[in-house]
Write a structure and sequence with these properties.
Length: 324
């Protein structure tokens, strides 16, 4: 397995290009960026940062490791790129950068991929069905994706991801609980070196259903599935009320928390570590991490974008590849 990590530049009107240019002012290992040379060159001028592009293809091993030099697999955006202004004409090429990274990971040319933020709305406006990086990469690779965000002191995995809240209860099934928990348990062991993971599981309803008075999903679905998993060696505690689970009393004894839906767990994690947190996709035949924020269109080209989460995503990806 090669040690190179592919870094996609993300939505061209957002801060992805800014972050990549800031990043190569330092050295962070063998990084191969995928983006548009003209966009990056213009953005570097806006930011008043030095940038020298070393163009190559996926099979080319002649990388340069020096501050201010970017090893780049070039793509070309067909539409105009203006900071802060979305352009649906560029959506296909945004997806192409992901395809290149996925293909390189599956072939062994890349050890991992790290993604800068894309804009779901403009990709859909471009005529592509797209609910997020996680789902798109899963469709390209097979496997079942589990989204987990991590910062210092907390990991939160999601039972469901980008679903409208009204669709969440119907999506929670015994099979889903067992699938997500099994993947999380296995990859905490294999990719994070935790021999016996301890996992806390949130209930779906307030007070974890209050014994069935505030909802029956805990009694009928979640608790029986967790009991079956415990018999198979997957250690967990729950379902527990989410409003008290995220307290030191519980968190100091756990390796990960499972939230039933996106906004049940991620606000807590981002409160603890926004700007330093990492989005990790488990359950796929490749290593993929990402930043914990969006495209930040209003910050593109201003020099005010912060690279903390991108650096953390690279660090985690490098650590995960070392576990294989």
């Amino acid at each position: 397995m090669k040690r190179r990590i592919a870094v996609t530049c993300g939505e061209p009107a957002g801060i992805g290009a800014d972050l990549c240019i800031q990043l190569i002012q330092q050295t962070h290992g063998e990084l191969l960026f995928i983006g548009d040379p003209d966009v990056l060159t213009r953005r570097a001028r806006q930011l008043d940062l030095p940038l020298s592009l070393h163009l190559l293809d996926a099979a080319d091993s002649s990388m340069v490791h020096q501050s201010g030099i970017m090893n780049l697999l070039p793509v070309t955006f067909p539409g105009e790129v203006v900071c802060g202004k979305l352009n649906a004409e560029n959506s296909a090429v945004v997806l192409e950068t992901l395809d290149i990274a996925v293909k390189g990971c599956l072939s062994g040319d890349f050890a991992a991929m790290v993604t800068n933020p894309v804009h779901k709305g403009v990709i859909n406006d471009g005529g592509f069905s797209f609910s997020g990086h996680t789902e798109y990469i899963a469709a390209q690779t097979g496997g079942y994706p589990v989204m987990m965000l991590a910062c210092e002191g907390l990991r939160v995995a999601l039972m469901t991801t980008h679903l409208p809240l009204k669709e969440v209860p119907a999506a929670i099934s015994s099979d889903l609980v067992k699938k997500v928990m099994t993947i999380l348990h296995r990859e905490l062991q294999s990719r994070f070196g935790i021999d016996s993971p301890e996992i806390l599981v949130c209930g779906l309803n307030p007070h974890a259903g209050e014994g069935g008075h505030l909802g029956s999903e805990e009694l009928e679905i979640i608790a029986p599935a967790l009991e079956e998993l415990r018999e198979e060696g997957v250690s967990s505690h729950g379902p527990l009320p989410a409003d008290t689970l995220f307290t030191p009393r519980y968190l100091q004894h756990t390796d990960a928390v499972v939230a039933m839906y996106h906004d049940q767990g991620l606000p807590v994690l981002k409160h603890m570590g926004f700007g330093r947190a990492v989005n990790i996709t488990l359950g796929l035949p490749l290593v993929r991490t990402s930043v914990d924020h969006g495209t930040a269109l209003d910050l593109a080209g201003t020099g005010r974008a912060e690279i903390g989460s991108l650096v953390a995503a690279l660090d985690v990806a490098q650590g995960m590849t070392g576990r294989f």
